[in-house]
UniProtKB/TrEMBL annotation:
Pfam families: Bac_luciferase. It comes from the Bacteria. Residues 9-249 form the Luciferase-like domain. Its EC number is 1.-.-.-. This is LLM class flavin-dependent oxidoreductase. GO terms for molecular function: oxidoreductase activity. It is an enzyme of class 1 (oxidoreductase). Keywords: Oxidoreductase. The keyword Nucleotide-binding does not apply.
Length: 339
């Protein structure tokens, strides 16, 4: 059995062939897509976060709205760039969204992906300390975020408060019990996956790894997952870890599917340069359901993961994305034993 959700990048563009021509279109359709995902039997609705781009950027209003409109599915991010975040403000927003959703938030965070602007986090008034890299700053923000999510008091109350305080030091409110245990780290390497395990964060692995192991992408990713699980066990956490992988999977069952993704039948892994280093990009899967089953059976990373996030082309509209989800859930997943 696997959790099957979608991951939307939340693109919009003022083009006549785009179903999302404005930020309003993306936000409202993202809510509708989450509702549709729940209706077709999917398990999760996840959204990318990018700043300075025509994409989803501020996740918590959207997550709260999705939580209010759905009842069962997990809702989350993949991922929030911690270089840009105020950890305490983020903890307040996350706690509120999780309470609205009834404890269904699965929050993916990370150092972040390549930016649209040069050192955009500085525009948000976040600056690395002396001798610190931007990745170090992201981990520092993360450590503080995880710390305040614990619910322990840390702030000295005013001797003359506006409202009566409970005894002792005060914590961030609203506090959502259990949210600390539903934080995921988007790891681009095997080493960062091991670090995430040590911190007690679940692993979110995408269709990109910022290293080249000289083996097929899914084997490199499977090794990352195994190292994560080993590191989790070594850390002695008293709960089970979770692992998600993202894939572009398109069953070809209609003429429209063939028009959109028929050429992706020939897709293969790619190795390229990203931010000055070698990176491995996973293939797109596009084929008739029977052939997809055969191909996906050979994907060792999917086999290792408990959660599969399908990257959906949101600019093709809610109905088409829901069609892709339904086909995977109803025609592909059962044949693989995922349902």
């Amino acid at each position: 059995m696997k959790h099957i959700g979608f991951l939307s990048f939340g693109h919009w563009t003022p083009h006549p062939q785009s179903a999302t021509q404005s930020a309003s279109d993306v936000l409202l359709q993202s809510i509708d897509l989450a509702v549709a995902a729940e209706e077709v039997g999917a398990d999760g609705a996840y959204f990318r976060v990018h700043h300075f781009a025509r994409q989803l950027a501020s996740p918590f209003p959207l997550l709260a709205a999705v939580g209010a409109r759905t009842e069962r599915i997990e809702i989350g991010t993949g991922v929030i760039d911690m270089r840009y975040e105020n950890p305490l403000y983020m903890a307040e927003d996350a706690g509120a969204a999780d309470l609205i959703a009834g404890g269904r938030l699965q929050l993916g965070i990370s150092r972040g992906s390549p930016e649209q602007v040069v050192e955009g986090y500085r525009q948000f008034d976040h600056h690395p300390r002396e001798g610190e890299t931007d990745a170090d700053m992201a981990r520092r923000h993360t450590a503080r975020f995880l710390e305040v999510l614990s619910g322990d008091g840390f702030a000295e109350p005013s001797p003359r408060p506006m409202f009566p305080n409970p005894p002792g030091l005060l914590r961030i409110e609203p506090h959502s019990e259990g949210l600390r245990e539903r934080i995921w780290w988007g790891a681009g390497t095997r080493a960062t996956a091991e670090w995430a395990a040590a911190q007690g964060m679940h692993l979110m692995s995408s269709t990109l790894l910022t290293e080249d192991g000289g083996v097929p992408f899914h084997e490199l990713q499977a090794d990352q997952i195994r190292r994560f699980r080993d590191a989790w066990q070594a850390a002695g956490h008293d709960r089970d870890p979770r692992v998600s992988v993202s894939r572009s999977i398109f069953p070809l069952v209609s003429a429209q599917d063939h028009v959109y993704f028929g050429l992706e039948r020939r897709s293969t892994d790619q190795v390229g340069m990203l931010e000055g280093g070698r990176a491995t990009f996973g293939r797109t899967y596009a084929a008739e359901p029977d052939e997809l089953v055969r191909q996906l059976e050979q994907d060792t990373a999917i086999a290792e993961a408990d959660t599969l996030l399908l990257t959906l082309p949101n600019q093709l509209g809610v109905d088409y994305c829901a069609h892709v989800l339904r086909t995977v859930v109803e025609e592909v997943a059962p044949a693989l034993g995922w349902r």
